[in-house]
Amino acid sequence: MSRYEQELKWLAFALGMGSTIALVQDWGPWPMFLGLPFCLLWIYFAWLHGERQLKYINILFSGLYVYGIARYLLGT
Predict the structure, then answer these.
(1) Where do the structural domains in the chain lie, given as residue ranges?
(2) What is the CA radius of gyration of the chain?
(3) DSSP helix/strand/coil, 13
(4) The model's pTM
(5) For residue 35, with 0-12 CB atoms within 10 Å meaning exposed, 13-18 middle and 19 or more buried, which class applies?
(6) What percent of the chain has pLDDT above 90?
(7) pLDDT at 73
(8) Contact 31, 19 (CB under 8 A)
């Protein structure tokens, strides 16, 4: 995976931008669908190694995204 790390950083950037645009444009659940893989990439690569709390913040956000996506898919 580290072989593709630079490409995955660009993918994470695109997902983050897409999530932000979806949030601003009020495009339903798309911020969650785009934000979850963004957070998972950050967790996996642990970018910004000097900022360990950032990994735990992304774990927290991932849990919230999974919860929100599950609520959306279950229609509650």
Answers:
(1) 2-74
(2) 13
(3) helix
(4) 0.83
(5) buried
(6) 61
(7) 95
(8) yes
